[in-house]
Structure formats: C-alpha cells, structure tokens
Amino acid sequence: MKLLVTGGAGFIGSAVVRLAVARGYEVVNLDALTYAACLENVAEAAESPNYAFEQADIRDRAALDRIFATHKPDAVMHLAAESHVDRSIDGPGDFIETNITGTYQMLEAARSYWTQAGKPESFRFHHISTDEVFGSLGAEGQFTEDTPYDPRSPYSASKAASDHLVRAWAETYGLPVVLTNCSNNYGPYHFPEKLIPVVILNALAGKELPIYGDGSNIRDWLYVEDHADALLTVLEKGKLGRSYNIGGENERTNLELVQTLCGILDRLRPKTPSSNGEGVGHNAPSYADQITFVTDRPGHDARYAIDPTRMREELGWRPSVTVEEGLEKTVQWYLDNEDWWRALQDRKGVGTRLGVKA
Ligand SMILES: NC(=O)c1ccc[n+]([C@@H]2O[C@H](COP(=O)([O-])OP(=O)(O)OC[C@H]3O[C@@H](n4cnc5c(N)ncnc54)[C@H](O)[C@@H]3O)[C@@H](O)[C@H]2O)c1
C-alpha cells in the first residue's frame, strides 16, 4: 500500500513516516519544509527504497496534481498544518492559508486523482486533526466524536474549518474519508518551542521553566509513537466517513507535568550544587526550583479530555505507553540527541515568548 503523507517532516508526520516504512508501507512524504520541519526526523526511513520525498506546498495545486500523478498513492494521510497555538495568536494568516486553503487544495487534488482512477472504494483521504476543535471542558466530562465544535483559538478554528471541508467533500462528492481528532502529543523530535521540550531544554540551560497562568490547565497527553500507531489503525480499519477521537488516557495539569519532568531530570541528570554552597547537604537542588509562573495565554482552554471508547471498542486500540514511561523516554531522548535540538534553537521565534499580543 502506498501512502502520501503530508507534513511528514514535522513532529507527528515524521513518526507516521518512520512507523509506516518500518511496517513495509511505501511512503511519499510531501512537505514544504517550513520553520517546523526537520528532515533529520525521517533520516532512518529515508534509507529505505520504499521512501520518497517531495518538497511542495499544499496550497500549490499544480504541484499536488503532479505528485498524485507521479506516485499514484492508495491513501492520503493529511497532517501538514501550521500547528502552534501561540504562533496562531501572533499571526493567524498562515493558519487560515495552510490549514483551510491548503486542505481545500488537497481535497480537490485528491478528488481529481480519485475520479480519474475510477473512484476506487478502497482509496482513503485520512484527515488528521485535533481535540482542540471541541473547545474547552470544565472539571467534568470528555470529548466524544459527537461533541459540538467550539474552537476558541485561530489554530483550532482553522483546524475545525478543515474538518468541515473534509466531511463536505465526503457528503457532496463521495470522497472516501476518515478523520481523527487527537489530544496533545509528546515524544522524540518534538519541536523545541512546545511545552515539554521547552521545559527540558530550559531546565538543562539553567533558565526559568515558564508555566502559563497558574498551571491548572489540563491536557490529555499521548506519546507520539502511540498516535502514529493509532493513525495507521484507523487508516486500515476505520469505517468510511467516520471520525475517531484518539487520547492518551493521561490527564495532567501543566504544573503536574512540569513537576514530573523535573523529577525525571533530577534522576537522569542531577543538578550540581551551586558554587555558593546552595543545595549542599540536606536538600539536593531540583530543576523544580526553576519553575516560574508567567502571564497566561489569551483564551487559554482550561481542560481537554478524550473519551476513547470508539477507538477501544470498534478498533481494539488503546495507548501502550503510560505518561510516566513516555516522559522518561522523552527526557532520555533529548539528553541523547543534543545535536538535533541545538540546530533548531536558532530558528525564528524559538526560545522567545509568543502569543501574548492579544
Ligand atoms: N502536536 C499535537 O499535539 C497535535 C495533536 C493533535 C493533532 N495534531 C495535528 O497533527 C498534525 C501534525 O502536527 P505536528 O505537531 O506534527 O505539526 P508540526 O508543526 O510539527 O509539523 C507540521 C509539518 O507540516 C509542514 N507544513 C506546514 N505548512 C505546510 C504547507 N503549506 N505545505 C506543506 N507542508 C506544510 C511543516 O513543514 C511541518 O513539517 C497537524 O495537522 C496538527 O493539527 C497535532
């Protein structure tokens, strides 16, 4: 089976590419290589004869038509997007253009290719989206696939719009689609502007560990390699036209998450007592001492949580990694892969506070 994966040089797309190639799929990775991309992420897959790369922008219809005609994929896994909420607050235009117009161009290119191929029922357009389209939860409840959409940031609104377009192309033109809406991912190759890598890398650099607001916002964390496995499961076994919520079953407040990361770092890379004698003797110094509370993100959603029943009962899928195991593997990965993250720290906006303009 040949997959056309968009955004395959990004964080989640590259996990999909690595896993799919390892499982014997043929993979064409289509990516514009924006600031968020890194071809290093797919270096191991790029060795395989089953892998091809196409640098292209999903808004460029002519390029998309050429890529479909050249590679003749059996399925599309559409992950290419602008993905950082804070950047969407500072500059929503790119999110509208890539996430909405780009998805429209992908749908039209896929529809044209699929129509010319005789509309095979086996074709799939798998749209990868976020649980943020459902808005913000209070202390109770979880998002199901039937939760009404209520996006609250330019990022989540643009992803909600793209979800609507995909469903419309299925209803109107019969394009065979599946959709997934997933909770927050973390793991290896996470771009160093997102919360977990920021905390690990600031901790190691002796910098403040910024927590937005009071740190009480709750997210449901999923290890990225579990997400990639879930996506291939939905592609293979998901019912046509259906959407699936994918979660980690791991709700944590941001403060709890950062404290857990500090505890792991304290074990794996203990801080040395400072030269002024602080931390010598009774209490060893902890990275948690670097935690700092900063101005909250405007419109910061309080809580996201996924009801995983459909994935579990229809497709027999559940995450394999607990948040404790996943965070430990992630911290170890950043400790072992300094060359990877150092090279990305020079990119525009990385290491600065974004998304406070509103
Ligand atoms: N990160 C999360 O926690 C999370 C959770 C749920 C869903 N998602 C969704 O999963 C997908 C991937 O997220 P990610 O975190 O890997 O994002 P990412 O920002 O790490 O990667 C996005 C990739 O898309 C590429 N891209 C951006 N604009 C493009 C364009 N116009 N044309 C072609 N390529 C372009 C980038 O170069 C990059 O390689 C997104 O659709 C996102 O909405 C992410």
UniProtKB/TrEMBL annotation:
One of the GO biological process terms: nucleotide-sugar metabolic process
CDD domains: dTDP_GD_SDR_e
Reaction(s) catalysed (UniProt annotation): dTDP-alpha-D-glucose = dTDP-4-dehydro-6-deoxy-alpha-D-glucose + H2O
Keyword field contains Lyase: yes
Ranges of residues in domain NAD(P)-binding: 4-330
Domain of life (superkingdom): Bacteria
InterPro entries: dTDP_Gluc_deHydtase, NAD(P)-bd_dom, NAD(P)-bd_dom_sf
Keyword set, alphabetical order: Lyase, NAD
Matches recorded under Gene3D superfamilies: NAD(P)-binding Rossmann-like Domain, UDP-galactose 4-epimerase, domain 1
A molecular function GO annotation: dTDP-glucose 4,6-dehydratase activity
Lyase as UniProt keyword: yes
EC numbers: 4.2.1.46
EC top class, as a word: lyase
Cofactor(s) needed: NAD(+)
Pfam families on file: GDP_Man_Dehyd (PF16363)
Family membership noted in the UniProt record: Belongs to the NAD(P)-dependent epimerase/dehydratase family. dTDP-glucose dehydratase subfamily.
Name this protein carries in UniProt: dTDP-glucose 4,6-dehydratase
Natural source organism: Roseobacter cerasinus
Gene: rfbB
